[in-house]
Amino acid sequence: MPEDEVNEELGFINTHYKIGAAVRYGTEVQVGYEYPDKSYAGFYEHVEDYQQCTDCHDAHSLEITASECAACHPTVSDLGDLRDIRVEETPDYDGDGDVTEGVFGELRTIHEKLYAAIQTYAADVAGESILYADQFPYRFVDTNGNGEIDDDEVAIPNQYGSWTPRLVKATYNYHMVVEDPGNFMHNAKYMIQVMYDTLDDLSQVTTVDISGLIRP
Ligand SMILES: [Ca+2]
Ligand SMILES: [Ca+2]
Ligand SMILES: [Ca+2]
Predict the structure, then answer these.
(1) Which residues contact 27 (CB under 8 A, 6 or more apart)?
(2) Is 30 in a helix, a strand, or coil?
């Protein structure tokens, strides 16, 4: 199908829920939509003793014991600090000049840029403004085109309908990132690669600017 032509046969594709295991394995299991001719990170090894699910998580509750992480990540004193973890080698992936934020913050800024890019593409190329809400079916028409969710907009009769192949790929990847709250730990490089390539793809046909971002 032509990348930028609206096609009634298309719709939003959901990665489904609790995808942490698949994200750990990256391109070995291809949980993201991977663009042709690009290479992607596989399993994120982290460190030998904190590699398998139950090295970090309680097998039943999924709970993580922050004090164990603190042994090597000294900024951690409780669970809320996990999002501040960053190692020295990590570059300023999101190009915001902040090289002390946790790798979580690098992912978050790129994810926000991806949202803005999807909105630009939908309005300028697909011809209908789009919103995301973390509620089925996730994609809605931004009826008044202000970029924000308004009361009447998040409702099933107002679900988004102007799908092009490029938009299906981009919205799939955007939502995939949302569906793993542990993404920054499970496989930050894979997540950033997938988001970077999605932004790059949208930048082919819109004013989206990806200069400043770093692809791992
Ligand atoms: Ca940064
Ligand atoms: Ca940031
Ligand atoms: Ca609105």
Answers:
(1) 34, 39, 40, 41, 42, 190
(2) coil
d(CA 124, CA 208): 11
User: What confidence score (pLDDT) does residue 99 get?
Assistant: 97
Phi, then psi, of 172 in degrees rounded to 5: -60, -50
Q: Can you read off the two tokens belonging to residue 44?
A: 């994120």
Query: Which protein residues have their CB within 5 A of the ion that is ligand 2?
Result: 94, 96, 105, 109
Nearest ligand, CA of residue 86?
1
* Spatial contact of 130 and 122, defined as CB atoms under 8 Å apart: yes
CA of 155 to the centre of ligand 2 (A): 31
Token pair for 55: 């090295």
Strand blocks (E) in the chain = 130-132, 139-141
Ligand sitting nearest the alpha carbon of 154:
3
Residue written as token pair 């809605």: 140
Taking the chain (216 residues) in consecutive chunks of 10 residues, what is each chunk's mean pLDDT? 97 94 98 98 98 97 96 96 97 98 98 98 98 94 96 95 98 98 98 98 96 97
